[in-house]
Amino acid sequence: MNPSASSPKGFQVSIVGGGVCGLACAIALEKAGVPVQLFEAAAAFGEIGAGIGIGPNAVRVLRYMGLLDAVLQKCNPGDLKPRGFVYRTGTGEHEAVYTVPVEDPNDFGIGIHRATFLDALVNFVNPDVCHFNKRCVSVTQSPDNPQRILLQFLDGSTHETDVVLGADGIKSSIRKFVLGGTDESIAFSHTVAYRGLIPYDQLQAAGFKTDLTVAPACFMGPSKHIISFTIKNNEIVNVVAFSANYKTPIGTENLPDGAAWVEQVSRDEVQKVYEGMGPDVKILLDHMPERPSKWSIHVVHPPLESYVKGRVAVLGDAAHGMLPHLGAGAGQGLEDAYLLARLLSHPGTNNDNIEARRDTYLHTLRAVLQVYSQIRRPRAQMVWERSYLMGRIYDGHGPHGMDWAKTGEDMDGMFPSVWHHDANDDVEAAFALLRERGAFPRVG
Known about the structure:
15 helices; 6-stranded mixed β-sheet; alpha+beta; globular
Protein backbone atom coordinates (compact mmCIF):
# COMPACT_ATOMS: atom_id res chain seq x y z
CA MET A 1 0.00 0.00 0.00
CA ASN A 2 1.15 3.54 -0.74
CA PRO A 3 1.20 5.20 2.73
CA SER A 4 0.93 8.65 1.20
CA ALA A 5 -2.30 7.88 -0.61
CA SER A 6 -4.43 8.52 2.47
CA SER A 7 -2.90 11.96 3.17
CA PRO A 8 -4.60 15.15 1.99
CA LYS A 9 -1.67 15.80 -0.32
CA GLY A 10 -1.57 12.33 -1.78
CA PHE A 11 2.22 12.25 -1.92
CA GLN A 12 5.11 11.79 0.47
CA VAL A 13 8.41 13.68 0.69
CA SER A 14 11.53 11.91 1.93
CA ILE A 15 14.46 14.02 3.10
CA VAL A 16 17.92 12.48 3.16
CA GLY A 17 20.11 14.30 5.68
CA GLY A 18 19.21 15.72 9.09
CA GLY A 19 21.54 18.69 9.29
CA VAL A 20 20.59 22.37 9.39
CA CYS A 21 18.61 22.62 6.15
CA GLY A 22 17.27 19.06 6.10
CA LEU A 23 15.78 19.34 9.58
CA ALA A 24 14.41 22.83 8.92
CA CYS A 25 12.79 21.65 5.69
CA ALA A 26 11.22 18.65 7.41
CA ILE A 27 9.76 20.88 10.13
CA ALA A 28 8.35 23.36 7.62
CA LEU A 29 6.76 20.59 5.54
CA GLU A 30 5.29 18.84 8.55
CA LYS A 31 3.85 22.12 9.88
CA ALA A 32 2.18 22.63 6.51
CA GLY A 33 0.61 19.17 6.50
CA VAL A 34 2.89 17.56 3.92
CA PRO A 35 3.74 13.92 4.78
CA VAL A 36 7.48 13.72 5.32
CA GLN A 37 10.06 11.15 6.38
CA LEU A 38 13.59 12.12 7.42
CA PHE A 39 16.60 9.81 7.07
CA GLU A 40 19.85 10.64 8.85
CA ALA A 41 23.10 8.67 8.48
CA ALA A 42 24.24 9.31 12.05
CA ALA A 43 22.85 7.74 15.21
CA ALA A 44 21.28 11.04 16.30
CA PHE A 45 20.89 14.63 15.15
CA GLY A 46 24.16 16.48 15.48
CA GLU A 47 26.52 18.69 13.49
CA ILE A 48 30.29 18.52 13.48
CA GLY A 49 32.02 21.86 13.44
CA ALA A 50 31.97 24.85 15.70
CA GLY A 51 30.12 28.14 15.32
CA ILE A 52 27.71 28.98 12.56
CA GLY A 53 26.76 32.42 11.30
CA ILE A 54 23.08 33.12 10.59
CA GLY A 55 22.89 36.35 8.59
CA PRO A 56 19.94 38.73 8.37
CA ASN A 57 18.47 36.96 5.32
CA ALA A 58 18.51 33.63 7.17
CA VAL A 59 17.10 35.21 10.34
CA ARG A 60 14.09 36.27 8.24
CA VAL A 61 13.70 32.71 6.94
CA LEU A 62 13.72 31.33 10.48
CA ARG A 63 11.07 33.90 11.41
CA TYR A 64 8.92 32.91 8.42
CA MET A 65 9.26 29.25 9.42
CA GLY A 66 8.21 30.03 12.98
CA LEU A 67 11.56 28.82 14.34
CA LEU A 68 13.37 32.02 15.28
CA ASP A 69 12.08 32.26 18.84
CA ALA A 70 13.13 28.68 19.55
CA VAL A 71 16.63 29.36 18.25
CA LEU A 72 16.89 32.53 20.32
CA GLN A 73 15.80 30.65 23.43
CA LYS A 74 18.87 28.45 23.02
CA CYS A 75 21.06 31.52 22.61
CA ASN A 76 21.53 34.42 24.95
CA PRO A 77 19.82 37.79 24.47
CA GLY A 78 23.04 39.34 23.22
CA ASP A 79 23.56 36.78 20.48
CA LEU A 80 21.02 38.44 18.14
CA LYS A 81 22.77 41.62 17.09
CA PRO A 82 23.73 43.72 14.07
CA ARG A 83 26.13 41.76 11.89
CA GLY A 84 28.65 44.49 11.13
CA PHE A 85 32.15 43.13 10.61
CA VAL A 86 35.45 44.83 11.41
CA TYR A 87 38.42 44.09 9.13
CA ARG A 88 41.87 44.51 10.64
CA THR A 89 45.44 44.09 9.51
CA GLY A 90 46.79 40.75 10.69
CA THR A 91 50.20 42.21 11.44
CA GLY A 92 51.33 45.16 13.58
CA GLU A 93 48.73 46.62 15.91
CA HIS A 94 45.75 45.29 13.96
CA GLU A 95 44.56 48.57 12.53
CA ALA A 96 40.85 48.59 11.70
CA VAL A 97 40.80 49.31 7.95
CA TYR A 98 37.14 48.72 7.15
CA THR A 99 33.86 48.16 8.95
CA VAL A 100 30.92 46.62 7.14
CA PRO A 101 28.17 49.20 7.52
CA VAL A 102 24.87 48.12 9.02
CA GLU A 103 22.64 50.05 6.62
CA ASP A 104 19.35 48.56 7.75
CA PRO A 105 18.27 48.55 11.42
CA ASN A 106 16.93 45.04 10.76
CA ASP A 107 20.36 43.69 9.79
CA PHE A 108 20.52 41.36 12.77
CA GLY A 109 22.32 38.05 12.72
CA ILE A 110 23.13 35.25 15.12
CA GLY A 111 26.37 33.57 16.05
CA ILE A 112 25.57 30.10 17.41
CA HIS A 113 27.13 26.67 17.80
CA ARG A 114 25.87 24.21 15.16
CA ALA A 115 24.85 21.63 17.73
CA THR A 116 22.95 24.29 19.71
CA PHE A 117 21.14 25.35 16.56
CA LEU A 118 20.00 21.80 15.84
CA ASP A 119 19.02 21.31 19.47
CA ALA A 120 16.66 24.27 19.10
CA LEU A 121 14.89 22.57 16.18
CA VAL A 122 14.60 18.92 17.18
CA ASN A 123 11.51 19.41 19.37
CA PHE A 124 9.58 20.68 16.35
CA VAL A 125 9.80 17.48 14.36
CA ASN A 126 7.76 14.36 15.05
CA PRO A 127 10.23 11.70 16.24
CA ASP A 128 8.14 9.07 14.47
CA VAL A 129 9.20 10.42 11.07
CA CYS A 130 12.93 10.47 11.93
CA HIS A 131 15.07 7.47 11.04
CA PHE A 132 18.70 7.21 12.15
CA ASN A 133 21.67 5.11 11.02
CA LYS A 134 20.24 5.39 7.51
CA ARG A 135 23.03 6.17 5.06
CA CYS A 136 21.52 6.35 1.60
CA VAL A 137 23.54 4.47 -1.02
CA SER A 138 21.25 4.53 -4.06
CA VAL A 139 18.19 6.14 -5.61
CA THR A 140 16.27 4.19 -8.23
CA GLN A 141 12.83 3.79 -9.74
CA SER A 142 10.66 1.48 -7.66
CA PRO A 143 10.44 -1.98 -9.30
CA ASP A 144 6.95 -2.44 -7.83
CA ASN A 145 5.59 0.96 -8.85
CA PRO A 146 7.54 2.82 -11.55
CA GLN A 147 5.74 6.02 -10.57
CA ARG A 148 7.56 5.99 -7.22
CA ILE A 149 11.19 6.31 -6.08
CA LEU A 150 13.12 3.72 -4.08
CA LEU A 151 15.79 4.70 -1.57
CA GLN A 152 18.25 2.04 -0.51
CA PHE A 153 20.34 2.34 2.65
CA LEU A 154 23.66 0.90 3.74
CA ASP A 155 21.99 -1.38 6.28
CA GLY A 156 20.06 -3.08 3.48
CA SER A 157 16.70 -1.44 4.22
CA THR A 158 14.69 0.43 1.58
CA HIS A 159 12.01 3.08 1.47
CA GLU A 160 9.54 3.91 -1.30
CA THR A 161 8.49 7.52 -1.75
CA ASP A 162 7.23 10.16 -4.20
CA VAL A 163 9.71 13.02 -3.77
CA VAL A 164 13.31 12.92 -2.56
CA LEU A 165 15.13 15.95 -1.18
CA GLY A 166 18.86 15.47 -0.72
CA ALA A 167 20.15 17.56 2.16
CA ASP A 168 23.04 15.17 2.71
CA GLY A 169 25.92 17.61 2.50
CA ILE A 170 28.95 18.06 0.30
CA LYS A 171 29.46 14.27 -0.04
CA SER A 172 25.84 13.85 -1.14
CA SER A 173 24.73 10.50 -2.52
CA ILE A 174 21.53 12.10 -3.85
CA ARG A 175 23.53 14.51 -6.01
CA LYS A 176 24.98 11.53 -7.86
CA PHE A 177 21.46 10.58 -8.97
CA VAL A 178 20.68 14.17 -10.00
CA LEU A 179 23.85 14.18 -12.13
CA GLY A 180 22.89 10.98 -13.92
CA GLY A 181 24.99 8.47 -11.97
CA THR A 182 28.45 10.06 -12.10
CA ASP A 183 29.46 12.80 -9.68
CA GLU A 184 32.63 14.75 -10.39
CA SER A 185 31.39 17.95 -8.81
CA ILE A 186 33.35 17.83 -5.53
CA ALA A 187 36.58 19.83 -5.61
CA PHE A 188 39.21 20.67 -3.02
CA SER A 189 39.25 24.45 -2.63
CA HIS A 190 42.96 24.54 -1.67
CA THR A 191 41.84 26.27 1.51
CA VAL A 192 42.19 24.80 4.98
CA ALA A 193 40.56 26.06 8.16
CA TYR A 194 41.74 25.50 11.71
CA ARG A 195 38.80 25.69 14.12
CA GLY A 196 38.54 26.12 17.83
CA LEU A 197 36.47 27.57 20.67
CA ILE A 198 38.16 29.66 23.37
CA PRO A 199 36.77 31.20 26.59
CA TYR A 200 36.83 34.97 26.07
CA ASP A 201 38.03 35.68 29.61
CA GLN A 202 41.19 33.64 28.94
CA LEU A 203 42.01 35.83 25.94
CA GLN A 204 41.40 39.03 27.87
CA ALA A 205 43.56 37.84 30.76
CA ALA A 206 46.36 37.24 28.26
CA GLY A 207 46.15 40.82 26.96
CA PHE A 208 43.87 40.40 23.93
CA LYS A 209 42.81 43.95 23.01
CA THR A 210 40.40 43.59 20.09
CA ASP A 211 36.82 44.05 21.27
CA LEU A 212 34.81 41.18 19.79
CA THR A 213 31.63 42.10 21.66
CA VAL A 214 30.97 44.99 19.30
CA ALA A 215 31.40 43.07 16.04
CA PRO A 216 33.17 40.00 14.67
CA ALA A 217 36.76 40.58 13.53
CA CYS A 218 38.70 39.44 10.49
CA PHE A 219 42.49 39.64 10.76
CA MET A 220 43.83 39.78 7.18
CA GLY A 221 47.23 38.64 5.95
CA PRO A 222 49.09 37.15 2.97
CA SER A 223 47.15 34.09 1.77
CA LYS A 224 45.65 33.70 5.23
CA HIS A 225 43.10 35.30 7.52
CA ILE A 226 41.42 34.63 10.85
CA ILE A 227 37.75 35.09 11.67
CA SER A 228 36.75 35.45 15.32
CA PHE A 229 33.36 36.16 16.85
CA THR A 230 31.66 35.57 20.16
CA ILE A 231 28.89 33.12 20.98
CA LYS A 232 27.07 32.17 24.20
CA ASN A 233 26.50 35.75 25.33
CA ASN A 234 30.11 36.76 24.63
CA GLU A 235 31.51 34.01 26.83
CA ILE A 236 33.10 31.94 24.04
CA VAL A 237 35.12 33.04 21.02
CA ASN A 238 34.76 30.99 17.86
CA VAL A 239 38.01 31.05 15.90
CA VAL A 240 38.38 29.96 12.29
CA ALA A 241 41.89 30.43 10.90
CA PHE A 242 42.14 30.06 7.10
CA SER A 243 45.16 29.40 4.94
CA ALA A 244 44.91 29.14 1.16
CA ASN A 245 47.01 28.21 -1.87
CA TYR A 246 46.03 30.45 -4.79
CA LYS A 247 48.62 29.02 -7.18
CA THR A 248 46.44 25.98 -7.86
CA PRO A 249 42.98 26.67 -9.34
CA ILE A 250 39.98 24.96 -7.80
CA GLY A 251 39.20 21.74 -9.60
CA THR A 252 42.70 21.01 -10.93
CA GLU A 253 44.04 18.96 -8.01
CA ASN A 254 42.34 17.06 -5.24
CA LEU A 255 43.55 15.51 -2.00
CA PRO A 256 45.18 12.08 -2.28
CA ASP A 257 42.75 9.16 -2.20
CA GLY A 258 41.88 8.27 1.36
CA ALA A 259 43.10 11.56 2.82
CA ALA A 260 40.96 12.85 5.69
CA TRP A 261 38.98 16.01 5.10
CA VAL A 262 38.87 16.73 8.83
CA GLU A 263 41.67 15.83 11.22
CA GLN A 264 43.05 16.79 14.58
CA VAL A 265 46.43 18.54 14.42
CA SER A 266 48.81 20.08 16.91
CA ARG A 267 48.52 23.64 18.11
CA ASP A 268 52.16 24.03 16.97
CA GLU A 269 51.11 23.47 13.36
CA VAL A 270 48.61 26.31 13.54
CA GLN A 271 51.10 28.66 15.19
CA LYS A 272 53.71 27.99 12.50
CA VAL A 273 51.26 28.79 9.70
CA TYR A 274 50.63 32.24 11.19
CA GLU A 275 54.15 33.15 12.30
CA GLY A 276 54.80 36.86 11.94
CA MET A 277 51.22 37.94 12.58
CA GLY A 278 50.40 40.55 15.22
CA PRO A 279 49.95 40.25 19.01
CA ASP A 280 46.21 39.55 19.15
CA VAL A 281 46.52 36.83 16.51
CA LYS A 282 49.33 35.27 18.52
CA ILE A 283 47.20 35.31 21.67
CA LEU A 284 44.29 33.71 19.81
CA LEU A 285 46.42 30.90 18.46
CA ASP A 286 48.28 30.37 21.73
CA HIS A 287 44.90 29.66 23.35
CA MET A 288 43.54 27.35 20.68
CA PRO A 289 42.77 23.82 21.89
CA GLU A 290 45.85 21.60 22.14
CA ARG A 291 44.43 19.58 19.22
CA PRO A 292 42.44 21.94 17.00
CA SER A 293 40.55 20.54 14.04
CA LYS A 294 41.90 21.12 10.55
CA TRP A 295 39.33 21.17 7.76
CA SER A 296 40.28 20.75 4.12
CA ILE A 297 37.40 22.68 2.62
CA HIS A 298 35.69 21.15 -0.37
CA VAL A 299 33.15 22.85 -2.60
CA VAL A 300 30.71 21.97 -5.35
CA HIS A 301 32.62 22.87 -8.53
CA PRO A 302 31.87 23.22 -11.37
CA PRO A 303 28.35 24.42 -10.52
CA LEU A 304 25.47 22.06 -11.11
CA GLU A 305 23.44 22.72 -14.24
CA SER A 306 20.32 21.78 -12.30
CA TYR A 307 19.45 20.94 -8.71
CA VAL A 308 16.76 18.55 -9.89
CA LYS A 309 16.19 15.34 -11.81
CA GLY A 310 12.59 14.24 -12.05
CA ARG A 311 11.17 14.21 -8.54
CA VAL A 312 14.58 14.27 -6.85
CA ALA A 313 16.22 17.52 -5.77
CA VAL A 314 19.28 18.59 -3.78
CA LEU A 315 19.56 21.54 -1.42
CA GLY A 316 22.12 23.17 0.84
CA ASP A 317 25.74 22.01 0.56
CA ALA A 318 24.66 19.07 -1.59
CA ALA A 319 23.59 21.60 -4.23
CA HIS A 320 26.07 24.44 -3.83
CA GLY A 321 28.67 23.74 -1.14
CA MET A 322 30.75 26.91 -0.99
CA LEU A 323 33.63 28.56 0.79
CA PRO A 324 32.52 30.16 4.07
CA HIS A 325 33.98 33.63 3.49
CA LEU A 326 30.62 35.42 3.51
CA GLY A 327 29.25 33.34 6.37
CA ALA A 328 26.38 32.56 4.02
CA GLY A 329 26.40 28.81 3.39
CA ALA A 330 23.88 27.87 6.07
CA GLY A 331 21.67 30.77 5.06
CA GLN A 332 21.58 29.57 1.46
CA GLY A 333 20.53 26.12 2.65
CA LEU A 334 17.74 27.65 4.72
CA GLU A 335 16.57 29.69 1.73
CA ASP A 336 16.47 26.46 -0.31
CA ALA A 337 14.51 24.66 2.40
CA TYR A 338 12.01 27.47 2.77
CA LEU A 339 11.26 27.68 -0.95
CA LEU A 340 10.85 23.92 -1.27
CA ALA A 341 8.50 23.81 1.72
CA ARG A 342 6.39 26.65 0.38
CA LEU A 343 6.17 25.07 -3.08
CA LEU A 344 5.39 21.55 -1.92
CA SER A 345 2.77 22.76 0.57
CA HIS A 346 1.02 25.04 -1.92
CA PRO A 347 -2.63 24.03 -2.57
CA GLY A 348 -1.76 23.67 -6.23
CA THR A 349 0.74 20.92 -5.45
CA ASN A 350 -1.49 17.92 -4.76
CA ASN A 351 -2.49 14.50 -5.93
CA ASP A 352 -4.65 15.92 -8.71
CA ASN A 353 -1.83 17.60 -10.55
CA ILE A 354 0.52 14.70 -9.89
CA GLU A 355 -1.71 11.93 -11.18
CA ALA A 356 -3.96 13.58 -13.76
CA ARG A 357 -1.26 14.30 -16.34
CA ARG A 358 1.81 12.67 -14.89
CA ASP A 359 3.79 12.65 -18.13
CA THR A 360 3.41 16.33 -18.92
CA TYR A 361 5.71 19.05 -17.64
CA LEU A 362 2.93 21.38 -16.57
CA HIS A 363 1.02 19.11 -14.20
CA THR A 364 3.53 17.17 -12.13
CA LEU A 365 5.77 17.58 -9.13
CA ARG A 366 8.58 17.83 -11.63
CA ALA A 367 7.30 21.27 -12.59
CA VAL A 368 7.44 22.43 -8.98
CA LEU A 369 10.97 21.12 -8.47
CA GLN A 370 12.20 22.53 -11.78
CA VAL A 371 11.00 25.97 -10.75
CA TYR A 372 12.77 25.56 -7.40
CA SER A 373 16.01 24.92 -9.31
CA GLN A 374 15.39 27.77 -11.73
CA ILE A 375 14.83 30.27 -8.92
CA ARG A 376 17.53 29.12 -6.50
CA ARG A 377 20.49 28.33 -8.78
CA PRO A 378 21.36 31.90 -9.85
CA ARG A 379 21.04 33.23 -6.31
CA ALA A 380 23.11 30.47 -4.68
CA GLN A 381 25.77 30.60 -7.40
CA MET A 382 26.10 34.37 -6.99
CA VAL A 383 26.73 33.83 -3.28
CA TRP A 384 29.20 31.00 -4.10
CA GLU A 385 31.21 33.27 -6.41
CA ARG A 386 31.19 36.22 -4.03
CA SER A 387 32.27 33.98 -1.15
CA TYR A 388 35.26 32.88 -3.24
CA LEU A 389 36.12 36.47 -4.13
CA MET A 390 35.85 37.60 -0.52
CA GLY A 391 38.40 34.98 0.51
CA ARG A 392 40.81 36.37 -2.07
CA ILE A 393 40.26 39.89 -0.75
CA TYR A 394 40.88 38.85 2.87
CA ASP A 395 44.10 37.11 1.80
CA GLY A 396 45.57 39.97 -0.21
CA HIS A 397 44.65 38.54 -3.63
CA GLY A 398 41.76 40.87 -4.41
CA PRO A 399 41.78 43.80 -6.86
CA HIS A 400 43.94 45.96 -4.55
CA GLY A 401 46.16 43.17 -3.28
CA MET A 402 47.56 43.86 0.18
CA ASP A 403 46.76 47.56 0.06
CA TRP A 404 44.54 46.98 3.09
CA ALA A 405 43.39 50.60 3.22
CA LYS A 406 41.39 49.89 0.03
CA THR A 407 39.75 46.76 1.40
CA GLY A 408 36.42 48.56 1.63
CA GLU A 409 36.47 49.38 -2.08
CA ASP A 410 36.98 45.71 -2.93
CA MET A 411 34.16 44.58 -0.63
CA ASP A 412 31.62 47.19 -1.63
CA GLY A 413 28.15 45.68 -1.94
CA MET A 414 29.17 42.13 -1.05
CA PHE A 415 27.27 41.69 2.20
CA PRO A 416 24.14 43.66 1.25
CA SER A 417 23.67 41.41 -1.79
CA VAL A 418 23.34 38.47 0.59
CA TRP A 419 21.70 40.06 3.61
CA HIS A 420 18.98 42.13 1.92
CA HIS A 421 17.46 39.30 -0.06
CA ASP A 422 13.95 38.34 1.05
CA ALA A 423 13.13 34.66 0.54
CA ASN A 424 9.46 35.55 0.10
CA ASP A 425 10.43 37.23 -3.17
CA ASP A 426 11.69 33.83 -4.35
CA VAL A 427 8.40 32.27 -3.31
CA GLU A 428 6.31 34.81 -5.21
CA ALA A 429 8.51 34.51 -8.31
CA ALA A 430 8.16 30.72 -8.22
CA PHE A 431 4.39 30.87 -7.79
CA ALA A 432 4.17 33.26 -10.76
CA LEU A 433 6.20 30.92 -12.98
CA LEU A 434 4.05 27.95 -12.03
CA ARG A 435 0.87 29.90 -12.78
CA GLU A 436 2.32 30.95 -16.14
CA ARG A 437 3.07 27.32 -17.00
CA GLY A 438 -0.35 26.10 -15.92
CA ALA A 439 0.89 24.01 -13.00
CA PHE A 440 -0.82 26.29 -10.46
CA PRO A 441 -4.24 27.86 -11.01
CA ARG A 442 -4.21 31.49 -12.06
CA VAL A 443 -5.38 33.99 -9.46
CA GLY A 444 -8.65 35.76 -10.26
